[in-house]
Amino acid sequence: MSQVHPTYDPIDESRMTLMDHLRELRTRLIWVIGALVAGTAISMVFVSPLLEFIIRPLTEAGAQPMAIGPTDTISVFFKVSFTCGAVLAMPVIVYHVIAFMSPGLYPHEKRNLILTLPGVMVLFAIGALFAYFMLLPTAVGFLQSFLGDIIAQEWTIDRYIGFVTRIVFWIGVAFEMPLVIAFLARAGIVSGQQLLGFWRHAIVIIAIVAAAITPTVDPVNMTLVMAPLLVLYFGSVAIAFAIYKPRAPRDFSTEDFIPDEYKDHDE
């Protein structure tokens, strides 16, 4: 005769598991917040050179940012400090996110995640540097000169910082395309052949994304954004051809979902 062990209560077990996860989440959030506070405090010491670096494309275009409101400079001080602090704290944040997720991942998933992290950071950094050194000077120069003989261009520091942050962030995110496609190809979700057949649609989508990211309406800046994204897309197609792995159906009959201590016991 077979019967379920009397101490097995799936509801109590799920509650315990949830509480354990919540305790771990609280601990890791404390570490993340502490890293953000420490990074922000360090960045406050270097706000002046950081601001000079950020506004360089504007000053090279012959403009100078100004503060209109009485608290604008204070607001910018804390925004720049926090943003740079978040960048400094990113290794700690990424570590604790992975550590929190890892118990629910298979060994090969953990390995793939760890291997892709350096690539994520490197590609984002390349995208951010491209945005700052290539796109921003051209965009700011165009905006500064557009109708400049009729309208005086005045840049407020608060709006300029937001302008720079959005461009750098979204270009950095767009440069993650090869890793996203590599992950999907490795998981067997998309193949290089599928992506190659999708190239016309991809160009249209990339053009829309470039138009959304580009801060100006001129074709020069849009081309500056589109060109590297197209190179990244077709490079990603080559990567997908190289690492595509068809998905194998999962055999649930070989997996055990009930802990050993709660299995049926034959009497």
Layout of secondary structure:
Elements: E1 2-3, H1 10-45, H2 47-54, H3 56-60, H4 72-101, H5 107-145, H6 157-174, H7 177-186, H8 192-197, H9 199-213, H10 219-243, E2 265-266
Helix pairs in contact: 1-4, 5-6, 5-10, 7-10, 9-10
Notes on the protein architecture:
This protein is mainly α. It contains ten helices and two strands, in the order βααααααααααβ. Strands 1-2 form a two-stranded antiparallel sheet. The radius of gyration is 25 Å and the shape is flat.
Write out key terms for the chains shown.
267 residues; mainly alpha; two-stranded antiparallel ribbon; 10 helices; 2 strands; 72% helix
Overall body shape:
flat
Class inferred from helices and paired strands: mainly alpha
Helical content band: over 70%
Poorly predicted regions are 8-16
Q: How many angstroms does the end-to-end distance come to? A: 6 Å
Q: Quote the average pLDDT.
A: 80
- Bin the strand percentage: under 5%
Short summary of the structure?
By secondary structure, the chain is mainly α.
